[in-house]
Structure formats: structure tokens, C-alpha cells
Amino acid sequence: MATNAILTENLTKVYGKLTAVDHVNLKVGEGTVFGLLGPNGAGKTTMIKLLTGLTDITEGEAYVAGFNVRRDPMHVKQRIGWVASEVILDDDFTAWENLWLQAKLQSLPEWKDRAENLLTYFGLLDRRKDRVKTFSTGMRKKLEIALALLHQPEVVFMDEPTIGLDANTRHMLWDLIIGVNKEFGITVLLTSHYIEEADALCEQISIIDHGKFVASGSPTELKARVRSDFVELETREAVDEAQLRTIPGVSDVRTQGKTWILRVSAAEEVLPHLFSTLKTDEIRRINVEKPSLETVFLDITGERIDQPGSDVPDYRKFYAQMRRARQ
Amino acid sequence: MSQRSQFVGLYGRELLRTFRNPWVLVITFVQPFMWLAFFGSSFSGASPALVQQIFHTDSYIAFLLPGVLSTSMLTVGMFGSMSTIQDKRFGFMKRILLTPTSKATVYWSKVLGSTSRGLIQIPVMIVAALVFGVRFAGDPLMWAGWILGIFFLGLGMSCFFLAMTASSTDWQTPGVISNFITMPLMFASGALLPLANFPAWMQAIASVNPVSFSSLLGRGIVVFGTVDWSYLGYLALFAVGMLLAGTAIASRYLKAE
Questions:
Q1: Distance in angstroms (rounded) separating the CA atoms of residues B106 and B110
Q2: Is there a contact between B256 and A54 if contact means CB atoms under 8 Å apart?
Q3: Chain B neighbors of A82, CB-CB under 8 A
Q4: How confident is the model at residue A307, as a pLDDT?
Q5: Most CB contacts within 10 A, which of A18, A225, A278, B115?
């Protein structure tokens, strides 16, 4: 257990009739960035709640920073940091006052030097006396990460930290997360439903779906598991599935209404056969995907990680509502 | 593990939030004047003899002051509850409970925060009464006891509200509870009128109503210069009982979200 920052044994959480996390065994090495990848409702946030002691464990055990979450939750909480999907700060307080409160909550007698260093690192030192409500979303995210690092935690949990952010802010945060991991040697457990985020940041990934881990490994290992290409096809009318299966190079066909997902050996070889099998005016849209974490997820679960219509909240609206409510 | 640091942080947060909200301050300062102006004027047309006969003093405002301060303590817990629900809905409670802070500490900080907010009204109300020409009786020890009694009442009521809403995330819950309890506790007490004219069943309620204890304690001191310390004892018991029960409930049921 000495080299595992996080370890779970058959970790399970049941809400009524719903098993949100189902006998999960997880090992996260010290100093790594570990990704929990899955669609909305897969069980990622529940995993974080279980590992941080925020919700009771139904069955199994969890160890974080060497402490049993069920028996020693306060020792765990002294050693973890948390970055939420939405920014959670006291808007009417200054950056420094937010840090002061975090220092009090963590019982830190000496915190000012550390706070100044963190504000310097995140480029916020000259704004420390400004109220947080005047900060941009990126600055607020930076401050939130600074709060999570103030007490020098061993493990930081980041629950979909870049959801709802624009591309520039997201990439800025990626650099910060990598920096935090390298600079401070902190273990990061990150949940995301952004494939490219997990690919860019994580050394190890577990794919979670319906509360179960369905695959684990490094991004390279996971991508190597899927040697096939995927062709996604949208047609005007329903087509005969048997007809698609007869196309040379097609190894599997899945359908979602008028959208067909073909698992193929090499897309460039299959496409001419596909076009000769189907009339071109039958095809509304066609999309070819080479092996990626997205296709890994598609291959394992039969679904895309972020299905159209999934309930991704608009956090810009959320922040605006929150600010208005506090005024 | 000592929770002193966490308590100082969270209680400080409550005070800072209160003093940074201009509307809270405006209402805190304006409300006592309105109470005294509207209620205090209700007997201004009555003859001094009638006022003396009913209230045993020639100033209804002096009679009313301890009752109004007691009544205002009924609702301070509602603000603490609403602040707690806001913390749950905006995720701040999660931020707190992901640090080594016990639920009891969160509860105590909220309870004391809302009680402190209610206490701000005391000096404002006293100044308002002086403006309305009231002359006070009593000595400093008695006054300290009276203010302590109001503190106990506010603490007990805040404990009650926050315990009742420990697991709630619905903005409406504190208001509903407030509407439900404020009227009976206010009118079935000696806060606004003398108990002597109440029917027996209302006198029975008033005899166990902490709002009565606080009102009668204060009235004896500021109007007549006499004190019945047993009222302070009852109020202390009420506050301690509510604090113990509320701490047990919050430790078990306070939700992070």
C-alpha cells in the first residue's frame, strides 16, 4: 500500500435500487495523474465522494494517502485537496480572504508564505486584495486550485475541472494540472468525459460505465487494444443490417436508429465497398475514426462517451446565477 | 482533533458575509425603528390612565421593547438556515466538509453566526427607544443578564431552525417553518401584551414559551428595575437543550449538498 496513493477493494455504493459504483478495485500510484473516464452518470463523481468520505461506503474499503476512508475520514481530509467541476468560492471575499478561510478549515498555523507562493505561481499575487467576483473564470479556477494546494495535500481530486470552459481556458488548466503534478509531486485523480483531456493529462486511465470499470491502462495501452477503425454512418432510410455485414472488412455493425457504427479493419479499404453497396443519396453523413480513446470507449460500451443530448450543464450561466444570488 | 480553527474561520465567514451585505445592515437598522414606530404608536391615542392600567407603565414603547427584541430573535435562525441551504446548493458545504471540519463545527458556526446577527439589533433598538423618549430602569448587572437572556433565546431558536433544516436543500423550508412557529410563539407570549388578560389555554402556552421568559425578564429590568433571575435560568436551559439536541441532529443529518 506504500506506493499507492489510492487503493480500493470492491468499493460499492448503492442508492436505493441504483448501484452507482459496483465492486470497483482501483490502484493509483503516488505522484501520478490518474483519469476516471466515463459519460455523465457513469459513477465518476460518486467515486470521488466515496474516496473523500463525503458519502458513506455501502460495501468494500477505500484507502487514500495510507488511511482508511471509512475509519479515518478526518486523516484522509487533512491529506486531500479538491477542485470541483464548478467554481466554488466566496465571491464577496477577496482572494486572500478565501485563502485565509481555507487555512482555517485546514488548521494551518503558518500559511501566509505558502499562500503568497501559490498566488505567485498562479499569477494572482497582484489581485489578492480584489474580490473574487471581479475575477475571470480562468482566474477563479486558478484560485480554486491554489486553495486545494494550500495545505500541501498528497492527493488532489479534480472532478471534471474543465467542464463548460472555453478551449483556451481548458488548455491553460491542462498546463496547470501537469505543472501541479510535476512541480509539487502531488497525485491527481481526475474525472472527465473529455477524451482528449484524459489523453493529454493522464498516465493511467480507467474507463467507468454504469458504475463498473470496463477497462484500465495507459492511454497508449488502451488505444492499442483497439486495432480497428470505426465508420459512423447516418442514412436517410433504415438500411438492411445484413447487407452492411456482407461488406468486406466489416467485422461488426451496431445501430442507433438511423445511425450505424461499423467496426472495420481499415476504413480506406472499406469505404469504396460501402459506397458501392449503398446508394450515395441514401447517406446523409459519414465519419471515419482512427483508433483513439473515443473508439476504445465505443468498442467497449457500444456508445459514445458524450452522446448528443447528454446533460452537460452550462457553467457560465451557473456562475452568473450564483453571483446574482449572492448579491 | 481540535475544531477551534475551523470554528473561527466559519464564524468569521458568517460575520464577514453579514457585514458585507448592505441590505442586511439596512434592514437590521431600519426594522427596530419600524417596529417601535408602528407597534409603539398603537396606544398613542389612549389616555395615560388606560395605558398605566393595562401595562403598569405610562410608556407602551418601554413595555414593548423587550418583547420586540425577543420576537426578532424568533426569525434569526431562519437566516442561518437559508445561508446553510445556499451553501449546500452552491457547493460550498461540500468544500467545507472535504476539509477536516466536523458537521458539529459547521452547525455551531452557523448557529452563533445567526444569533450574533440578531444581537446587532439590541443597541439599535435601545437607541431607537431613547429617540422615542423612553426612560430606562435597571442597573448594569441586570442589563447584562437581560442581554444574555436574549442571546440564549436567539441561540436556542437558531439551534432549532438549523436542526430542522439540516438535511434540506429547499429554499422554502426555513420560511415555511418560520411562518409556522413565529405567530404562535409571538402571540402566545408576554411579548406584546400583558399575560393577565390571556385565556387560560394561552397562559399555559405562554408559561413554557421562551419568548415569554425573555420578554418578562427584560420588561422587569428596563421598565420596573426589578429582576427575576429564574427567567434567565429557563432561557439558559432552553439554549443548552436546543444546542445539544441540534448538535446531535446536525452531526447525523447535515448534508453536503
A1: 6
A2: yes
A3: 94-95, 98
A4: 52
A5: B115
